[in-house]
């Protein structure tokens, strides 16, 4: 079940009246937040790999996508803590990143494979 929460920053209340600022999520209809265990060494790396796969899969389906890092600060205030509690997110987990998904307003250009040259790429 999804919920919609509206929050205006107390530090910058003027942004609520600025029509040029839609929202931090570019009006995406779907926002996926990836959470990970706080004490897991590879939490961020694993979340990034999962996000990359989501972005690639979305693109292959003609769905626009955007990666937004530093999701933890989205929940780093009393309202954010309350939201996590309401969503049932365990306190041992933190938000790593957001993935925005939606159909783009303008069609995406078709990506064409480039012709390969005979050179090799060697990583040292």
TrEMBL record:
Residue ranges occupied by any Nitroreductase domain in the UniProt entry: 17-71
Name of a matching Pfam family: Nitroreductase
Domain of life, source organism: Bacteria
GO molecular function annotations of the record: oxidoreductase activity
Protein name per its UniProtKB record: Nitroreductase family protein
Species the sequence originates in: Candidatus Phocaeicola excrementipullorum
